[in-house]
Known about the structure:
Layout: H1 14-25, H2 39-45, H3 53-66
Amino acid sequence: MKDNPTTLYIYPESKDIAAVDVALASGRSPAQAGLYWNSDCLKEIGQPKFWPKQQLEPVIAQWAADHPPPPPKPAPLCQ
């Protein structure tokens, strides 16, 4: 992802992504299939991809390790 920025949306179940795949494969928009996905967003992000937990967790853990939180700011001297 270093040279190809992306947006990650986390959904609770793969069936959300599968339903979009089925709608798009049949030539229907998500709205026509009764889904909440916005067609304008799909134009911008492309077809969503489902990443199983076993595949996604190491990527998120590596990102967190590469981007530690900043050190805490010192307390103000005057309050």
